[in-house]
């Protein structure tokens, strides 16, 4: 039998002064209450209560046991409360690249807090990839299809990109009609990407790596965007990020008949059987959030 349950029954009998009343309070049969009491007496090796037809009373051993049993129940409740708090409140540490943080993660956090207002967030916005275990990160949103050992991932879809430049830059440079001519252009390249080439796919679905001239590098795609807006070259950026600039004509798509290889977007987290409930719920919320915000994938 469950010892904690037996202790709860014993304390209730002591408070009610009756097995029958204790049974009613606990929504049990009187026979079950009696069995729990007998189990506890056998467990402790002492008679805890004197029984008669009208009332029960504590023995000396029962009085001593009652004090300890009440303490056990108080500690058990504190432990239960602690566990519950860890599941539904606390701090979730999240990391994502600058673009994903600014354009999507913050909106997702606001939406999640409407559902679970007791959860706090610590957002680490970086272009570099952090070791989640070393930096105590709960969830990462990454542009990668590689998952290290000890981690789990959930697919968020593909992040589509395009080549863009300002009309002023293109007007001042030799005509660009084929990917072969990229080697004669000023290319603005992410520091974590290949500096020597870009992979483009033609209308027939044929992919090829084309050499480029990497004129400028940065680990921040907002810096690359600003350089493109300053007429400094051609860069590869998420379509969702440049949609507004394309609509207003500040940027134009370069080689629009060619497609770039999309990036895989994923949620990454440490594999564990004891992931707090609030983290599990946040992961599920992110999956739903990104599924509804199709602009991420355009």
TrEMBL record:
The keyword Nucleus does not apply. Residues 1-59 form the HTH lysR-type domain. The keyword Coiled coil does not apply. It comes from the Bacteria. Keywords: DNA-binding, Transcription, Transcription regulation. It holds the Pfam family HTH_1. Belongs to the LysR transcriptional regulatory family. This is LysR family transcriptional regulator. It comes from Vitreoscilla massiliensis. The lineage of its organism: Bacteria, Pseudomonadati, Pseudomonadota, Betaproteobacteria, Neisseriales.
